[in-house]
Predict the 3D structure of the following.
Amino acid sequence: MHLDFSILPRFADALAYGLWLTVRLTLICIVTGGALGFLLALARRSGSRLLRAVSTVYVEFFRGTPVLIQLFWIFFCLPILLGVELSSFVSGVIALTLYTGAITSETFRSSLGTVGREQMDACVALGLPARVRITSVILPQALLRATPTLLSNAISLFKESSLVSAVGMADLMFVGQNISNNTARPVEVLTAVALIYFAVAFPLTRAVAVLEGRILRKLAV
Amino acid sequence: MDYVLDLGAVTRHFGPLLEGLWVTIQLTLAANAMGLVLGFAVALLVLSPVRLVRLPAVAFVEFFRCTPAIVQIVWFFYCVPMLFNLYLGSMTMGILALGLNLAAFNGEAYRAAIQAVPREQRDAAVALGLSPLQSTLHVILPTALRLAMPVLLTNGIVIFQQSALVAIVAVPDLMYEAKSLATKTYRPIETFTLVALVYFAVSFPVSQVVGWLERRRAVAMA
């Protein structure tokens, strides 16, 4: 068959628009999902049995079901249950936040586990209130240790965000599929879309690897 | 909320959902078989001292790890028939797309495990006069497989969940049946909740087994 990649520049604007939505969605959900994940991790280590049980079920459920079905659920079921119309962007943010929260909480949980018991004892001995204990002692250390995994999670989220195309959000994947259907040139367009995702994700994975080496060296000292 | 739940709308149509689940399970098992075997081969290629062998393998792994699975699946379904004039059943295509994706992820797991095989074992294999093939199959593979098992199983569960993506290219898996049932009955809440629970019911026990394996290993190492 005859390949013609020269059709691509015509759609550069549309693809850039899609990429911008993908990036916005990813960045927002990194922040919201990260915050939710940290709270969940605290809940899973809390003294209250109820909090522990609820957060554990939540995390296991979101990790144990496909993201696609979570998206469908938020897009089609949540508006019925709440009785309000949600814009597709808001629905997308909610769905990916809930999912990212579950994934991130596992990262925080294992990094919180590495903050030594002595530090907690020291906090109690110093009479620090719970809020200070969390924000000034535990959080900074847990965050440093969790950073490489958190960044990897962020890159995964960038990739997972392409699922919103299945519910009709005009992200990079959706725009790509549209162009491919309209021009009947799937090979050129879809390859270009894949390469765009790759061009963003690959350098980031390298950067994370470099950073991880540095943090490990720092922690070892 | 003035919405009355009607689970009967879903339970009356259990047949198609079960068929969908069966398709999902077949996809998962076949992709895992492919990923487990091909992944090991990929890891060996990635670790090869020959640049010409290593580079394409590394490119394969990085490409599959750095692009969304949905892009890979859609690409596969649209582009492979056009590029290679190859028309396969949708099931075969789904297995190939998921299997290649899994091979890239398992390749990384195997690579880490192979590198963790103690140096002495390789030396011993050489000292015993084993051929490279013999030492790979009988010394490195068993140890690496054991080391990589938790990650391989986790990847296997992930591919079970990722298999829902083939619904987008109209493979009649569990997700696809759920979508069409939700549309047909106008009962998205009941359908999607139930199907989510079905996915969960399959992947949760397996992830518990992985956790148990990891704890056992932690104890054994200590």
